[in-house]
Amino acid sequence: MAADWLDGRGFNLLTIIIALVALVAGVVGVLYARRALFPANRAISYRMDISRLLAGDAHALPGALTVNYNGEHLRDPHVVKLRLRSTGRHAVASEHYDQGRPIKFDLGRLVVLLDSPTVSAFEVSGSQVKYGPELMPAGQSVTLSLITEGKPRLSVEHYFIDTKVINETPEPSSSDRMMRREALPAVLGMASAIAAVVATVLEAVNR
Questions:
Q1: List of residues 6+ apart from 32 with CB closer than 8 A
Q2: Which of 29, 83, 117, 195 could disulfide-link 143, Cβ–Cβ 3.0 to 4.6 Å?
Q3: Contacts for 175-184 with beta carbons within 8 Å, 24 or more apart?
Q4: How many H-runs (helices) and E-runs (strands) does the chain carry?
Q5: What does the alpha-carbon distance between residue 136 and residue 143 come to, in Å, rounded to a whole number?
Q6: What is the pTM (predicted TM-score) of this model?
């Protein structure tokens, strides 16, 4: 009886059930492996834009221009706009900040807060700007306006979990790159002249 059942429709049904179970197990395994190998796409992008308030020769003008903020005199002030964006497909939540540590932007200069941000996750202290831990839904951006004493030199420290950090700060302007390109031939020419002088001296010594 059992042999007849296995040779007939019952066997075919059992085969189909086993195949379906194997298919489901395979799909679950693929999804689990994908999640383990390719974590959810989360990314925080930052951009820093800088503009100098006074030209280099402004201090030499008669009755030199000065900048004061809240009664404090600022030397060589620069306006800085710091923008953060959630550029991944998924939100960056507070649990993605390892041990609740914020992302830190050190500008290398004393920072003066120019406006009050609409989010409370920003903290400005000394030369540092800290953000988080704070939920940032996908596509959301926040901007902070600052003034620094001198041109800032940005360094970033972060402790995110499964989250990329992307620098979107624009490269130096084309005029700066052009100045570097124009200076290169002069440096090479000077090096060639020095090499020629050294060769001449060595030749004279060998004689």
A1: none
A2: 83
A3: none
A4: 3, 11
A5: 13
A6: 0.60
Q: Which amino acid is at 48?
A: M
- Strand bridging mode 67-69 / 77-86: unpaired
Q: pLDDT digits over 10-42, tens only?
A: 556 667 777 777 777 776 665 555 544 545 689
Residue 6: exposure state from Cβ atoms within 10 A (0-12, 13-18, ≥19): exposed
3-state helix, strand, coil in the chain (%, to 5): 35, 30, 35
Q: Can you tell me whether residue 188 is helix, strand or coil?
A: helix
Alpha-helical (H) ranges within 8-146 are: 9-37
Q: Which residues make Cβ contacts (< 8 Å) with residue 58, sequence separation at least 6?
A: 64, 65
